[in-house]
Amino acid sequence: MRKLIVKGREIASARVRTGGSAQEKYAGEELAKYLGKFGIPEGDDLRIDVHVDPALPKEGYAVRPEEDGTLSIRGGGPRGVIYGVYGFLEHYAGTRFFMPGLEKLGEGDVVVDEAYSFAPVFEQRRCDWPCGSVSPDWCVKNGVNDPLHSTIPDEMGGNFRYVKGAFCHSMAQLAGVSAGEQPCLSDPEVLKRVISNVREILKEQPDASILSVTQNDNGNYCKCPKCAAVDEEEGSHAGTLLRFVNAVADDVAADYPDLVIDTFAYMYSRKAPKITKARPNVCVRICSIECCRSHTLYDYTCWANRDFARDLKAWSAICDRIYIWDYVIGFGHYVAPYPNFHVLRDNMRFYAENSVRGMYPEGNYNSPSNGEFGELRCYLLAKLMMDPFMSEVEYYALMDEFLEAYYGAGWRYVRAFLDWTCAEVVNAHLMIGSMPLDNIPGDRWLPMTETLDGWWDKAEEMAGDRVEYVRRSRLQWTYMKLMIRPDHEAAVRLYEDLAKWQIRVREGADWTVIHTDLEGSFPDGK
Description:
By secondary structure, the chain is α/β, with parallel strands linked by helices. It is built from 18 helices and 17 strands.
């Protein structure tokens, strides 16, 4: 049994009192449930008030021992009050919500000796890792408000609401062109058609927060004289796009004052225009697809990142609502190591420092899990989206807590593998399409084979009931060994493991499709 101590007074029992909304009641029920798990009985020694306080930031919260001897948990809105309860459990009780079904309650007394408040930096926090985002419960506990694989019920705070069916690459739908082309953005008939289709969508989804008017996923931008002249004047192909999107936003602003129109700064449109500024109800989503993940985004010695950092700062000067579509894994080799953990915190902080308001770190949205560190990356990214200004010590403490809970007593050997791979790529350029041996060449892996095998062997030996999780993450090392030294029998076993865990090997390809680099090691036709 744990003790609850508030301002030096040991509490014999506690009773939770909430406001009348469904979200306040849900928050109160969650708090009472966890107090019960701590062994703190229900009773009248302490009253805990859980309620919405509109004076706070909408998703922010404050926990405070009051002068009248009560304890209050206040949230600025429906999600804020729920976040307040989980924030209380994390901050004061040491509770952690690692993965669905894997939580740590914390140890020792729950001591509330001073007030604590917090508000998320980013207004939109998207997660597409199925290992976490399939669970609304996990999303709410970790501050994810825009999960790809589930819908958060209203009583649990609800979702950040993108228009359904128009999250990205929406020009095909809105302008009536094929997905392999782009419309002429100087054609008034195209603008008229897009506005008409936007309004039809909004009739069906009037409560949407944000609607995407974004280029299709190709480089076939219009080169007609009118579009070319605007792009020349603006110094960027984003010139025609932003003027077009501004016109759509102007048309709907009066009828939908809370709606945001979203567009891309992606590939050919990533560079900010010289003249046109985004309307107040326009969001620009900047995509980092060309960037390097072994160096920080603000490392101006990295050729792949310096232009992106310049573009982000330029957009920050002309747009009040910037979102980021980030890329945090290797999409051609889900199973191979992708050693970017040393830059995740720095990059998230860099985004926050440059006025970014929404985050989508795209990951392995294809598989329930993967053979690398998908679960760890999912958890850390959720925490970083809530608090991009956490210290390096706090970041690695979260990492170690997760590794211990997820992999068992031998977790330090897993951490040793992770640290070695991250150290090996600091002089390379880690791109989303890199081949695994581009990042760490075979002549660096080979001398370490015995050591790396030993680390994974010890992790398995000490894992206890977590051994399946160790074995699944070990697949990344098996994958690399097969790239260096093909082995038919080992390849068959890997194939069987990929099938067992339903792990896709690359974006859009399930476990039955193996990259050509491994063809010689796998059964014929597989």
